[in-house]
Amino acid sequence: MAFLESAVVVYLRKIYYPDGFDFPLSPIGSSVAITELIRELATLIMLFSISFITGKTLKQRFAYFLLCFAIWDIFYYLFLYLLIGWPPSLLTWDILFLLPITWVGPVIAPIIVSLTMIGAALYILFRKRKDKIIRLDTLRWIFFIAGSFLIFLAFVWDYSSFILENYSVKELWNLTGDPALFDISYNYIPRHFNWFLFIAGELIVFTGIILLGTRKRKF
C-alpha cells in the first residue's frame, strides 16, 4: 500500500511539478482533486478493513489500525526517497492530508506521530498477548482524543491561518467551492509549523499510552 501511494504521488508530481515539487502548489483540475480526496478515503477504508479482519476484539483492532497506518506512512516516505530522492531533508514541508482540510508540515512530524502509533500498538498487543489488563475507558480515550486533536491543529494551523488572513470564518461558509478560495490557496507557502501544539499533543498521547496499563486504585 505504501509503494502504491508513493507511485501515485510520483505520477502526479511528474505531471504537475516537472521541475520538482515545491510550494506554492500548482493548480489542479476539480476532477483530479475529487479523485484524490476519494483515494485518501479509500486508503482509510482499506486500513480499517485490515485491522477489522486481523483483530478479534475492539482493542486489538484499534492497535492493528494504528500499526498499519504508521507503517504505511513511514514506508510511503521511504519509497518516495528511493524512487525520486524526495524528501531531501526530514524538515522538508509536505502536504500530508486533504481531509477535512489541508494538512501540512515538515516530514519529520508525521514520522514522529507514526513512531508513537507503533509504540502504542505494540504495547497494547504485547499486553493482550500476556493476558494483562488494557484499560481503554473514558479517561484514556480523553487523553488520546485530546492529544490527537492538538496534533491535528498543529498540522492545519499554518494553512488555516493563511486562509483566515484573507477571509473570515463566516465568509468561508459561503465560499465553499468558490474559485476565488482555490486561487488564494494556490498562493500558500508554508511559514511556521506550530511545534508547541504538536509537542503538547504528543505528550498527552504518550501519557494516555502509559495509563493503558495502570490499574484503578481502591480507596
List strands and helices in order, with pairings:
Elements (H helix, E strand, L loop, with lengths): L1 H15 L13 H25 L3 H27 L8 E5 L5 E4 L1 H22 L8 H27 L4 H6 L4 H7 L9 H17 L8
What features would you describe in this structure?
- It is a single chain.
- The chain has 219 residues and is mainly alpha-helical.
- It has one domain (2-211).
- Helices cover 67% and strands 4% of the residues.
- The chain contains 8 helices and 2 strands, in the order αααββααααα.
- The protein has helices at residues 2-16, 30-54, 58-84, 108-129, 138-164, 169-174, 179-185, 195-211, and strands at residues 93-97, 103-106.
- It has a two-stranded antiparallel ribbon.
- Helix 1 (2-16) packs across helix 3 (58-84).
- The protein is globular, with a radius of gyration of 19 Å.
Question: Could you give a short description of this structure?
Answer:
The chain has 219 residues and is mainly α. The protein is built from eight helices and two strands, in the order H-H-H-E-E-H-H-H-H-H.
